[in-house]
Amino acid sequence: MNAIDVKGLTKRFGKKLVVNNVSLNVKPGEIVGFLGPNGSGKTTCIRMMCGLLKPDQGHGQVLGYDLLKDRLLIKSQVGYMTQKFSFYEDLTIEENLSFVARLYDLKSVKKHTTETLEKLGLLSRRDQLAGELSGGWKQRLALAACTMHKPKLLLLDEPTAGVDPKARRDFWEEIHRLAAEGMTVLVSTHYMDEAERCHRITYISYGVKLADGPLGDVIADAGLYTYTLTGTNLERFIPELQANKGVNQVAPFGNSLHVTGTNLQALKRALKPLEQHDDIHIERAETNLEDVFIKFMSDSTDNMQ
Amino acid sequence: MSHIFSFQRLLAMLIKEFIQMRRDRVTFAMMLGVPLVQLVLFGYAINNDPRGLPTALVTMANGPYARAAVTALENSEYFKFTEKDASPSQALSMLRKGKITFIVTIPSDFAKQAEAGTPNILIEADATDPAASGAAVASAPAIIEQAIANVKQKNPSLKQDLLTPSTIIHRKYNPEGVTQYNIVPALLGVILQLTLVMMTSIALTRETERGTMENLLSMPASPFEIMCGKVMPYIVVGAVQVVVVLVAGKVLFSIPFEGTLMLLIAATLVFVIALVLLGYFISTVATTQMQALQIAFFFFLPSLLLSGFMFPYAGMPEWAQKLGEVFPLTHFLRVVRAILLKGAEWHEVSASVYMLFLFVALLSLLALKRFKRTLD
């Protein structure tokens, strides 16, 4: 049985189609990265899967429960971490945890909260107001709170937005630890390095699923060829390269340029004129996820307009 | 461009403010609606010299003198005889229930008394609200004297000059006409309404505005559990307020405690529950805390004007009285005044308490129906 097995999810807000016919399969114990630009419908998708929004169309099962009929059962076995910190800032860390423990009917409340505080390393700060915590600690608290009832499925909505790199790394270690214990994780993110930490990624843009699969497959399926240009003052070539039909996109990375195209021959022809410059080094490179995403973004039509 | 004032910058502020004002529909409706409601209520419903006060007639006489006196009282427009054939005990019970403001009792030998020149009429007034009955009571003796004189004139054989009618007035429940006796018990209701409805009206909107609603809804709490959890603390707050106001009323204003304390507390509890549910219902309707408070205030104004708190209920036109019935405060005021000042028993206040129960049932159903389990 899949942890998530939904078909044709569709959601409109007024006239605006936010999620369009998205199907998703997630196996137990998998960590799936949910990617896409801002406003692509990631949050709406996640909210539909944890029972916070009613899909206009579509059906399926989450943890074997019917998405439309068994919302309360789904809620009791899913952990959902919201994009914005949504615990009570005017309650202490311990009070927040006890509140959650009681809502999930955990026995005993005291034991669960103390254990969670211990695991978090917040035992000494248990009486501090949650609102006083830094962004990184708030995120750790939120994760601890929404995994306290040992959910079988964890839905994380951009959990690491605005969190420093060290905290992000610790966070991902925790996610992998939870997955190793058998928890299924669906995590939405903007960060490419985080996508690379997932077993599988799903890319949606403007409500439509564009790609789904292991990282390597998604990159390979995109059919992109990439060259890296290194040298000085490379910016002067950007307009010229962008105007060339053989080039899909040009992206500056520090002192180098990533030039990608879908047709290898056309791309080579486009780069030919630059070879005469001695100060520029042209080298074939591996296409990375970011190149693929930028292609997805520029390919997909914006239905916001 | 001046550093202190630039027309362009002022314009920028003005345009932004107007756009925001227009977007906030509730505020906009409020700004137009409140003056209109105030105008209609003050203009038509409120009457400081209330007429048409419901009156019961207890009479053993049916002669021309009695008829003339009753007709004259009715013609004065102060008295409206809603019960024309009541027994003394029936009439008294209605007075305690607050269904009537006056009992006019005419003795069986009224005609004989009138012809002898000393007719007696007893007017018992519900003086819990001195303002309501004052003008009517003051005008009654002269009206009755004139009516009897008119009848006598038609019979020249009677001595016309000998007429000293005595209209005996009993100001019941508040013989000295102390305004505080009427206001302070009513204030209990008003204070409870003001604080409890306001506090609970932001119950859900606060969660929504702080972003905690999304989290709360994603956890397994049922709408009923959320509602009870949200309103029960305020029932406790209400209970404390009741004790404070009652003790202060006794100590500072020497308010009479005629009735059963337990009955008053039980009835007040029902009222408190109705209020917190009303507030909670508002919070399911409003989208922001600001809106919730505005709706609460929009509700307060007519409830203060039409419940009989600020102006005599009996003096309002019928449509305003009907409108007043939709406010829990109206029913509570009847209960609290009846129990504290008139010593009313359960059977005399039960109708109003049942109305409060009806509010509790209706408001909790409405709130549960309005509560959104999803973020849709």
TrEMBL record, chain A:
Keywords: ATP-binding, Nucleotide-binding. GO terms for molecular function: ATP binding; ATP hydrolysis activity. SUPFAM superfamilies: P-loop containing nucleoside triphosphate hydrolases (SSF52540). It holds the Pfam family ABC_tran. The keyword Oxidoreductase does not apply. InterPro entries: AAA+_ATPase, ABC_transporter-like_ATP-bd, ABC_transporter-like_CS, P-loop_NTPase. Residues 4-231 form the ABC transporter domain. Belongs to the ABC transporter superfamily. This is Putative ABC transporter ATP-binding protein YbhF. It comes from Pseudovibrio axinellae. The lineage of its organism: Bacteria, Pseudomonadati, Pseudomonadota, Alphaproteobacteria, Hyphomicrobiales.
From TrEMBL, chain B:
Pfam families: ABC2_membrane_3. InterPro entries: ABC-2_transporter_component, ABC2_TM, ABC2_TM_bact-type, ABC_2_transport. It comes from the Bacteria. It is a multi-pass membrane protein. It is found in: Cell inner membrane; Cell membrane. The chain crosses the membrane at residues 26-46, 183-204, 234-255, 261-283, 295-314, 351-368. One of its GO terms (molecular function) is ABC-type transporter activity. This is Transport permease protein. Keywords: Cell membrane, Membrane, Transmembrane, Transmembrane helix, Transport. GO terms for cellular component: ATP-binding cassette (ABC) transporter complex. The lineage of its organism: Bacteria, Pseudomonadati, Pseudomonadota, Alphaproteobacteria, Hyphomicrobiales.
